[in-house]
Design brief:
The structure is a single chain. With 330 residues, this protein is mainly β. It has helices at residues 114-118, 144-148, 230-237, 278-281, 308-311, and strands at residues 5-11, 16-23, 28-35, 41-43, 68-78, 84-96, 99-112, 124-127, 156-162, 165-171, 184-187, 196-199, 202-204, 215-219, 226-228, 244-246, 251-255, 263-267, 272-276, 282-285, 290-293, 295-297, 304-306, 315-319, 324-328. The strands form four sheets. A six-stranded mixed barrel has the order 2-3-8-4-7-6. The structure holds ligand 3AI.
């Protein structure tokens, strides 16, 4: 298969992964966050006021001979963390990991939230969700992958993120050398525009069986942590010495020297499972001797979020053609 592979660089201590993306002719280069939890491809642009820019690379459509303004089109994104971005739309040539889409709708930012201004590690997002939650007006636009898929060997892409090391995304093919176990597939419900699926259960530490409780959630490469239902979270932290829910950190914290147990979630009927190493679940130091857990509550979201902490523990196949989500250990 053609080597359609993009190296994903871990940023800010595994908070997010960006990949090199080129847009326009001659190509302008950006570090974009491939985000399976949204469906807009947007980039910092020369339309932004200088107060909203903090070193990010700016896309300038006037410098691209292949840029064509989509007259009358706008976009307006809002994200679960309260951040937002909006602007106008151009079609231009976009290349990621050897895959090129001509006339890809490129959403140029005229406004970005402070969280994006402060995040010097990324110049924008590449939504890899489903077009039904794209925000373009007056007509929704397809994602980079949806436009690229017809020309790929298989209508799928894979994520192979790694702990504190570069990972990779492949488009259109499965690298059999990248995963150790068989790939177990779960059905995807794309009706909300996300990669939504249901895990049949979970286990804490080296427990052999699984607690059979359905965990319905999205697999979101753009979310850092593993956000789960309160009963699962409480069971997990019930096995972490001294773990408490801290108001000041609005989350579960524990003494940084605590050994935290692994967390496993089942795939399919529980035949296969993904194990998140305890090391990944001691996510960050709070600075006062306590550490912030990688597992937190999904309260208020309406479903769980299998974010990067879960994704980097496995080799993940996003099969858009068959609406399947594949998980394999590596
Ligand atoms: C509050 C807005 C709600 C969450 C909803 N928006 C969404 O679901 C959007 C598409 N997705 C997201 O807000 C989340 C999924 C949350 S599920 C409610 N994924 C993408 C996010 N992590 C992208 C990001 C990456 C880096 C920095 C910041 C943000 C909407 O527009 O209705």
């Amino acid at each position: 298969p053609d080597e359609d592979s993009a190296d994903a660089e871990p940023q800010l201590g595994d908070e997010e992964w960006t990949v090199p993306v080129s847009i326009g002719t001659p190509p302008q280069g950006f570090k974009l966050d491939l985000d399976t939890g949204s469906s807009d491809l947007w980039v910092f642009s020369t339309l932004l006021s200088k107060e909203e820019v903090n070193g990010q690379s700016l896309y300038d459509p006037n410098k691209s001979t292949t840029a064509a303004k989509m007259t009358g089109y706008t976009w307006d994104c809002h994200y679960g963390d309260g951040s937002f971005s909006s602007g106008y739309i151009y079609q231009d040539t976009v290349t990621i990991g050897g895959v090129t889409v001509a006339k890809q709708p490129v959403e140029v930012a005229k406004t970005v939230a402070p969280q994006f201004t402060q995040d010097t590690a990324l110049d924008g997002l590449v939504g890899l969700g489903f077009w039904t939650i794209n925000t373009a007006e007056p007509k929704k636009q397809k994602t980079f992958f949806e436009n690229a898929a017809p020309n790929l060997e298989k209508g799928l892409f894979t994520a192979d993120l790694k702990h504190e090391a570069p990972g990779s995304y492949n488009f259109g093919w499965i690298d059999e050398n990248a995963h150790a176990s068989n790939i177990t597939y779960a059905d995807v419900d794309s009706s909300d525009g996300y990669w939504m699926w249901t895990s049949p259960g979970y286990a804490v530490g080296d427990a052999k069986g699984i607690n059979k409780t359905a965990i319905r959630g999205i697999t979101d490469t753009g979310t850092t942590l593993l956000l789960l239902p309160d009963d699962v979270v409480d069971t997990y932290y019930g096995q972490v010495d001294g773990a408490t829910w801290a108001e000041e950190w609005s989350g579960y914290v524990f003494d940084c020297n605590t050994t935290v147990p692994d967390f496993s979630f089942a795939v399919d009927n529980g035949t296969a499972k993904v194990t998140v190493p305890g090391e990944y679940l001691n996510y960050a130091e709070n600075g006062d001797g306590t550490c912030y857990g990688g597992i937190q509550s999904d309260y208020g979201v309406g479903f769980s979020i299998f974010g990067d902490i879960a994704i980097k523990s496995a080799f993940v196949v996003f099969d858009q053609q068959n609406l399947k989500l594949g998980w394999a250990s590596k």
